[in-house]
Amino acid sequence: MAAETSTQSYSEKWYWDDRYTNESDPFDWYQNYPSLSPLINLYVPHRTHRALVIGCGNSAFSEGMVDDGYGDVVNIDISSVVIDAMNKKYSDRPQLKCSSLSVTIIQFEEKVVAFQDASFDAVIDKGTLDSILCGSNSRQHSTQMLEEVWRVLKDKGVYILITYGAPNYRLRLFKESSCSWTTKLHVIDKSLTAQPLETPKWELTKPIPLDDEGSSVESAIGKSPDVHYIYVCIKDAALKTETDAA
């Protein structure tokens, strides 16, 4: 990536089309499937569950899910360039489906059949929300995205967000949307992606104590830990109904 590229470009379609035109080798943001599979297996336990991977890029993550037995994995990305390449790459794998559309407007994208309400058991996001937050009107667009994720999830379905965003920032963002989630927090060492540790500092499948403001996290894992945060947001339609009625 060019050093002069502004992070604001991460939210732009032209940037990703250009990048994937020039970089065809698979790349996984933040973490790969082997490092996250214990958590995916925990919250998406049935291999028949339908999963949506948003901002898939040319990552091998979805391929890893299919290799692990998941039978219905849908990938979306804003870049038509990478989706064309992914469709060619996985043409012999019917378990993997790829579509070019923006996660902020899933239901409005032209030439793509809209995903129906409550049509997925899990939505997985490795850095897509972070990319949206780099762009202009980031609060509006991130709220739109979260509301679309909530819409396409089944009740009790999970939105698994892998991010660099600490709880005091991300929990505030969740509250700004009209969605209702039950949220759990996990952390994973950043170093696990490049060079797995013999003994990880934190147990991936064990949630970190999380209060409403996220202030409890520092006492559990310290200040500025070298981790990726993983928010497991469980859709709670009943809670939204209660909130709307209040």
UniProtKB/TrEMBL annotation:
* Superkingdom of origin: Eukaryota
Residue stretches making up the Methyltransferase type domain: 53-160
Q: Name one Pfam family in it.
A: Methyltransf_11
Report the SUPFAM superfamilies cross-referenced here. Answer: S-adenosyl-L-methionine-dependent methyltransferases
Gene3D superfamilies with a match to the protein in the record: Vaccinia Virus protein VP39
Q: Which UniProt keywords apply?
A: Methyltransferase, Transferase
Q: Is-annotated flag, keyword Methyltransferase?
A: yes
Family membership, please give it: Belongs to the methyltransferase superfamily.
Protein name according to UniProt: Methyltransferase type 11 domain-containing protein
Which organism's genome codes for this protein? Answer: Brassica napus
